[in-house]
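Re-run with default settings, no changes from the original entry. Doing this only to confirm the output is reproducible before filing.
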Amino acid sequence: MARSETLFFWIAVALYLASSVVYIGAFAFRRPRWLGLALRLALVGFAAHSGTIVARWVATGHPPVMRDYENAVAGAWVIVALYVALCYRYRWLRGLGLPLVPLAMLMLGYGLLSNPRLEPLTPAYKSFWLAVHVVFAWFAYSGYVVATGLAVLYLLRRRQPGLVGMANGEAGSANVGAGRFAIGDWRLGGRRLPAGELLDELSYRLVTFGFLADAVMLVAGSIWASRLWGSYWAWDPVETWSLISWLTYAVYLHVRVTLRWRGERMAWFAIAALSTVIVSFWGVNYVAGTLHSFRSI
């Protein structure tokens, strides 16, 4: 790691850690007002995180698409960016940082343990299809992760309704002392939805976004694999688990659209489905041999 990258990296980790502690405290001690501080810490951490990526890009001369470290840092950045965008649109969604900011911090830690050495692009990575594959992987996984975060927030709202609304005037009347907010309606696509229904709908839309990006990732990856290894599909463990993940979310969309599942059932489904993403992204490299090891190509 370059010196500037190291500086930005540790500032981002420290601020994400501080933000995570405040988020956890806000939910544990029922202090909704702490969520604003947690978001501000996360925003400054996101700025440092952005600086980490820029410093890495300048030092290596290529975007962060190589190996575990760069994929973890860039993937975490997309997750936080999507969270920030949602908070800009719906300010009362600050509580979404409870699952997402600690996850981003852990992803940075995972990347750091994966030998973040500086190196130029190897021949295997000098491919347009590789760039498409990696970028859409970031989109797909960030969509799935944030959808799961919304599902977690939906379940927490059922048990702690006061911690979804944020501040006086933003979501109707507030009773801060009791940790309870009367959440008003919110607009989505010209419709007015109760906050709980909006969480459910946003989670579904992000799964749809992730599912479509996942499909592009699989196709682009197959084209890249054909040019690199001479086969579009080899039933490699990472390929297999990526397909399992995509099919799992296809089932999610099927039951949502055809069986009209809503609410708590879909929230638990989204949480369970994310386990397939975790296995394909992190788990397979440690339990099975794979052509997709970022350490070997």
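Strands lie at 174-175, 180-181, 185-188, 191-194. Confidence is low (pLDDT under 50) at residues 166-185.
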